[in-house]
Structures are given as C-alpha cells and as structure tokens.
Amino acid sequence: MNMQRRADIMMILVTVSWGTSYVFMKMGLGSIEAFNLVALRFGIAFLLAGLLFYKRLRKVDFKTVKYGMILGFILYLVFTFITFGVNTTSASNAGFIVSLAVIFVPVLSALFLKQKIGPRVFTGIFLALLGIGFLTLNSQLQINQGDALCMLGALSYATYIIVTGSLTKNVDSLNLGIIQLGFVSLFGLISSFIAAEPTVLPTSTASWIAILSLGIFCSAIGFTIQTISQKYTTPTNTGLIFSLEPVFAAVFAFLMLGEEFTTKAYIGAALVLAGVLLSRIDMKKVFFKRGQSV
C-alpha cells in the first residue's frame, strides 16, 4: 500500500471521528455546561498532544505562542458556537450546517482578500444555501436558534481556515496546532468563570465516554493525523473525504440518538452536500484525469 492510499484511509478515519463529534457533544452536554465541555475537550487534547510531542514543544518560540493564541481564540469561538448550537438542534442538522464553512471561505476571501468567485463555486454556494433553507426554515420561515449558532460556528471556522493559511507559513505547524489547543481550553475555562458556571467533571459514564472521545479522538489524534496525512495526498482527495463529514454525522446521529430526517431535510442535506462538493472539487478535472489514465 503506497503512502497516498494510507493517508487517504487515515483521513477517512479522521472524518468518521469528526462525524461522531456532534453526537458526543450532545451526550456530554447531558451532565456539564457548554463552556466546561469546551475547556475539558481541548484540555485533554492539549495534554495528550503535548505528551506525545513534548520534545518538539521544547523548541517553541514566542511567535508560535502568539499565533497559537490568535488561532486558539478563533477556534474557541468556533466550538463555543457549535457546542451551544448542538444543545438546541439535532446533531444531523449541526453536521450539515457546519459544513457551510467550505462555502464561507471563498465568500470571505472575495470580501476581504479581493479574490474572485468562479462560476462553479458560485453555483456550489447557491445550492448549499438553498439546502440550508430546506434543513432549517420552518413553515413560518423562521430559523431555530441552534441552527443559527451552528451557522456562526461555520462562519468562524471559515475565518479560522483563512487566518491559519497566513499564520502557518513561518512557524512549526505542528507546534502551532498543539499550542492552539491549549488556548482553546484556557478561553473555555475563563468563559465558564465569567458565566458563573460551576467547573465540574462529568457525572455519568456516558458523559465521560463523550468527553474523552472528543478530547482524544476528535481533537488530539484527529488534528495531528490531518496535519501529517495532508502531506501525502492530493487537495482533491482531501476535499472529497472531508466533504463526507456531515454524512457521517447524520449516520451516527441516527444510530446513536435515533434522529431521523424528514423528506424536506433529505432534500436539504443532498443540496448542501452537492454544493460543498461542487465548491471543493472540479469534477471535470477529476473525470478528465481518469479518462487519460485509462
């Protein structure tokens, strides 16, 4: 098995774990508050990643810490919005709405970086937004509060993607990734004190399983494997694999929480997925290359 195939398999496993995160967030919120969950999740991730790469972390410089604080704050906003959102919407909806980050990246790039949006990406944006309408709007054309918070999470994540691209050029990306996890946990802990939330540990086995899974698999291992694997595969493969995250989220929400889609929601989910895929991947190039290789 070549390195690209191994990298693709590892990223599929990461995407599966990220798909489960929405279910685990709902489970964890059964016994602890949202800010506590964010602090615990990323605190566990930071400690584990720090132990695994402590020799490398000893070489960290001030610039990396400063950039880690900036990215950590944005990532804190991402997961605060998503965690509060998941508390009042379905895990399935959350997964598809957060995938809008892919759509928001070119929109923000066009607004602030003056980058043009091509016809393919524009069509993808239209399909995804149409799908979100099917998923979230009720008969009075009102949107659920949890769905709105997940949209803010997607917008924050798009901001994180753009800022990360500019900050990782002159620093050790792995050290930066670990440092940012620590700052997310710190900001979550500070917020829990400001919000007068009692800082507590989970009180049930299910909540402990959820928190440890979020910290170990969805955060520490997930972010590390993503960083390593992307060196050995193509952007097209990466985009296609990561686009499956909301599908896995819906599958696990059905299997573990018993959530089911209505016909309207199925249509919305299909439109969102089509829009995300169209925005990320140039299908003409994929099929043209395949035709050439045959």
UniProtKB/TrEMBL annotation:
Residues 7-136, 146-279 form the EamA domain. One of its GO terms (cellular component) is plasma membrane. It holds the Pfam family EamA. It is found in: Cell membrane. This is DMT family transporter. Coiled coil: none annotated. InterPro entries: Diverse_Substrate_Transporter, EamA_dom, EmrE-like. Belongs to the EamA transporter family. The chain crosses the membrane at residues 7-25, 37-55, 67-86, 92-113, 120-137, 143-163, 175-196, 208-228, 240-257, 263-281. The keyword Membrane applies. It is a multi-pass membrane protein. The keyword Cell cycle does not apply. Keywords: Cell membrane, Membrane, Transmembrane, Transmembrane helix. It comes from the Bacteria. Its main location: membrane.
